[in-house]
Amino acid sequence: MSTELFPRVNFWWITVAVASLAAVSEVRCHSCHEVKTAFQLRQIGPLKWVPEAPGTDADLSVCKHAGPSCCTRRMEDSYRTAAVRDLGHGVRTYSFELKYLLSEHATVFKDTYESLLSFSQGHVMSLFESTYTPLAPSIAPHVSALFSDLSIFIHDAANVSVETAVHRFYDHLFPLVYMRLINPGAAGGDLADCLRMTRQDVNPFGRHADTAAHELADALRAGRALTRAFVAGNHAVNSTEAVMLSRECSRALVRMLYCPHCRGLTLIRPCTPYCLNVMRGCLASLTEMDAPWRRYMAILEDLTHTVSAEHSLELNLLRVRGWVNDAILHAQLHGPRLTATVDKLCGKSMTESHSDQPTIPMVTDIPPQMTSQSASLSREKVIRMSSRSLPLKPTKSNKDRSLKQIAREVIMYIRHYISFFNILPESLCEGEMGLDEFTCWSGDDVVERTSIPANVKVERSNEERLARLDFVADVWSGIRRYPL
After folding, report:
1. Separation CA 86–CA 381 (nearest Å)
2. How far is 458 from 275, CA to CA, in rounded Å?
3. What's the distance, Cα to Cα, between the start and end of the chain in Å?
4. How far apart are CA 333 and CA 343, in angstroms?
5. Residue 2: how many other CB atoms lie within 10 Å
6. Which of 95-122 are b and which e, b meaning 16 or more Cβ less than 10 Å from the residue's Cβ?
7. What secondary structure does DSSP assign to 437-466, as a single string?
8. Which DSSP string do the residues of 33-90 spell out, in sequence order?
9. Which residues, other chains included, contact 15 with Cβ-Cβ below 8 Å and sequence gap of 6+?
10. Residue 460: is its pLDDT beyond 50?
């Protein structure tokens, strides 16, 4: 009866199978083949340093445990170098996109500045070539010098002043306007020199010269500050690649990343809280930059708005032509007064009428009975007529992105990086966590992900902390001094 209920089992084959599995497991446990493979793939050091079978090394200082180990002291030292290298690589990978964003948009702004300066220079020259033809050949070098100085200034030249460059241009413009428009035929090198030197005292252009100097200076200062801000931001992000790691940090990284290898566990990932704890300790000096980085992002956004807002660099450069035209018209309208003032300051000049010399109808030829309102309307009519030779803006079919479009794009992107330094540890740990695994490395052993890992705290020396804080102060000191 019992024989029918319980068929005969061949216990001999079961015994052989169990013995075979035990033998295979024992062979695997006593082999460092997987460790050697990982050691080679990660380019940690010479393969000859990895033992063929687990043993004991009393000199191990980080990856100590009671059982046999596939690690030696030489391997441990190489693991420390590799761990620091891995952290640096992770930081560089994480910061690459932000660095590219800053450098790429700095280049875009630079190219846009150059395009606007070039267009505005041509815009101004077209005014002289179409409306004030006798002035065009002589004024061309001074127009070129003006925009060259503006370009140098906006690209961060400390020895160039926008106000000085603008007033220098009007100093050279006054003799040409006086001797060829107001008093055609007035001659003499001494007169031209006198007119140049007394221009600001005579004030032939009214408020228009000062307006141009002030408005351009404000707009270009904001553009230069934005250029500096991009450079400072790149400098700050580059600093993450040279993060200073203490001895305690490098030991903690080895324990987290490579101590499992000593037990043959080359694929296990660190537990999430454990990884965050180690990374926050190692990168605490960088996370201290979170507050100044947030201030920097606010400044960058504010500067971007300033450059592209209502009184933007783009609009002010396009207004240069109008300012120059208004200045010349003002001088023409006040021709008699200017002549009397110049005669007192520079001596009465000889004026001759040349029938073959081209002249421009003088706006000063206004009948005495004309009211001031009529004169103003005539002046506006002349301005409109002189502005028809070139459109104020490029045609849409041949137009690059405006500063406002570029600024909107920059602001949209930079808002994603406000917490860059604060979330750096979390971002790096994402690459180390095995999300689909049920077990993880706690620093001492393999545990379930639901268990609480060991609390490892990485301390920093005071010297390291002070060095990082000094660097933070140096990076942001220039930003706070930007003139707006």
Report:
1. 71
2. 12
3. 103
4. 18
5. 5
6. beebbebbeebbebbeebbeebbebbbe
7. -SEEE-SSSEEETTSPPP-------HHHHH
8. HHHHHHHHHTT-S-GGGS-SS-B--TT-SSS--SS-BS--HHHHHHHHHHHHHHHHHH
9. none
10. no
* Pick from 233, 267, 290, 255: nearest CA to 478: 233
Q: What is the pLDDT of residues 317-327, one digit of tens each?
A: 999 999 999 99
Given phi > 0 = left and psi -120 to 50 = alpha, else beta, which region is 188? left
Give me 191's structure tokens. 């007169």
Q: How many CB atoms lie within 10 A of CB 59?
A: 8
Which residues, 6 or more positions from 57, have their beta carbon under 8 angstroms from its beta carbon?
69, 71, 72, 73
* Residues 312, 410 contacting (CB under 8 angstroms): no
Answer whether 285's CB lies under 8 Å from 471's CB. no
**Closest by alpha carbon to 223, among 392, 406, 394?**
406
Q: How far is CA 188 from CA 17, 185, 193, 195, 343, in A?
A: 117, 10, 9, 11, 13
- Give the total residue count for the chain: 484
Tokens 């110049």 locate to 342
Q: Side chain identity at 98, as an amino acid letter? A: L
Tokens of 410: 């920059």
Cα separation, 226 vs 245, whole angstroms? 32
Contact 157, 134 (CB under 8 A): no
Provide the pLDDT for residue 138: 94
What's the token pair of residue 340? 């009397």
SS3 283: coil
Cα-flanking dihedrals φ and ψ of residue 69, to 5°? -130, 145
State the pLDDT confidence band at 461, using cuts at 50, 70 and 90.
very low
| Cα(224)–Cα(231) distance, integer angstroms | 11
- For the ranges 42-46, 61-65, 157-161, 331-335, the lowest mean pLDDT is seen at 157-161
| DSSP secondary structure, 244-270, as one string | ---HHHHHHHHHHHTGGGGGT--S--B
